[in-house]
Specification:
By secondary structure, this protein is mainly beta. About 5% of the residues lie in helices and about 35% in strands. The chain is built from 4 helices and 22 strands. A 4-stranded antiparallel β-sheet has the order 2-1-4-3, with no helix packed on it. The protein has a 4-stranded antiparallel β-sheet with strand order 5-6-9-8, with no helix packed on it. Strands 12-13-17-16 form a 4-stranded antiparallel β-sheet. The termini are far apart.
Length: about 350
């Protein structure tokens, strides 16, 4: 029975620091013909979290490509993961084509696992079943923004005495730092020039490092001097940018592709740009009604900038006095307002 025919899922469940439980549906030991004919069935991997409290690594036929090894004769490697860029690496795993350690020795053979990755992230090597070796990092994952080189040495010997003829190696990169959220939003056209710009990254950053890669340019005056700092009480993924902004002006905030996070040395690899505009001078843009209307028609006002309801209510009046006129109040600010009255205005009145 071939690998592709069964769509076998190999679930490697970490059972604390004591050992591992290998569970699968329709488990079998593939022979050499299975490997040659259906190796593509294992090209790729995904990391999933089970409903239990134990982390589970699931291999299937989808996902990104895996390295094409030249192991020579002897022991073969069916699969190695993760591989390539932007790998969300919870653990590293290598699947051999035959038992490498007896099941009875899984808990005692932790010092002889033939799998290593550099730089050292404090990961612990374990056997997860007789033919699968894993590296489990502390803190639930490998540091981000880091390139890791992994290898299995030549001479690694299986239970049947057959050895890996050639050593194999591959690499993976954990996700690089990116801007995840901003205030103001991209394209905003009513930004308060007195408010700081806030940037939230998807991993921890140093404000001083971000400052070296950030520029703010005005559509009117060119580059603007800014300060980059950590907001009071803000997380290590959040920074704020302050500077002297002017009203009714377009701005472009640019972060170049060299910015780095604090977890690893790899730069972002792509630049980030945020465009916005500060609010224009205050003015009343339009009002309704404008001519002869029904006495029961509501009043509608549209301003160029956001205005608190309390301020509008304080300065709005109707002459002659209209019965039931009571504009809504509150701190909520917006550009458009509508006011109704409990009793209609007197007809034929200007």
């Amino acid at each position: 029975m071939g690998l592709g025919a069964t769509r076998a899922l190999w679930a490697l469940t970490v059972a604390g620091s004591v050992g591992f439980v290998l569970g699968c549906s329709g488990w079998f030991q593939p022979d050499s013909s299975d490997v040659e004919q259906e190796i593509d069935a294992l090209q790729g991997s995904t990391v999933q979290t089970s409903d239990s409290t134990l982390p589970t690594l699931v291999f299937d036929g989808g996902g990104a490509g895996a390295p094409d090894f030249d192991e020579g004769d002897g022991v073969q490697i069916l699969h190695a993961a993760p591989y390539g860029p932007e790998a969300k690496a919870i653990q590293v795993a290598v699947v051999f084509d035959r038992p490498m350690v007896a099941l009875t020795d899984l808990d005692t053979m932790t010092g002889d696992v033939p799998l290593s990755c550099a730089p050292d992230a404090g990961a612990k090597a374990r056997w997860a079943g007789s033919s699968t070796a894993v590296l489990i990092p502390p803190e639930g994952g490998f540091p981000r923004s880091t390139r890791f080189e992994c290898s299995v040495p030549a001479g690694t010997t299986a239970v049947d005495g057959v050895a890996l003829e050639k050593g194999v190696s591959w690499w993976f990169e954990t996700p690089r730092v990116h801007v995840a959220e901003t205030t103001p939003r991209a394209g905003a056209d009513d930004v308060d020039p007195a408010s700081p710009i806030e940037l939230v990254f998807d991993q921890p950053v140093d404000p001083q490092v971000v400052a070296k890669h950030l520029t703010l340019r005005s559509g009117r005056d060119g580059e603007v001097a800014v300060e980059v700092s950590r907001p009071d009480g803000g997380s290590d993924q959040r920074v704020q940018v302050t500077g002297k902004l002017t009203k009714d002006t377009s701005y472009t905030l640019q972060i170049d592709d060299g910015v780095t996070g604090t977890e690893g040395p790899l730069p972002a690899g792509q630049s980030y740009s945020l465009e916005f505009r500060t609010y224009p001078p205050f003015q009343l843009l339009s009002h309704e009604p404008t001519d002869e209307v029904s006495p029961a028609s509501p009043l509608r006002l549209s301003f160029a900038t956001r205005v608190p309801r309390d301020s509008v209510a304080e300065h709005l009046s109707i002459t002659p006095a209209a019965k039931g006129f009571s504009p809504a109040t509150g701190e909520w600010s917006w550009t458009d307002y509508g006011f109704g009255m409990s009793s209609p205005r007197a007809p034929s009145t200007r």
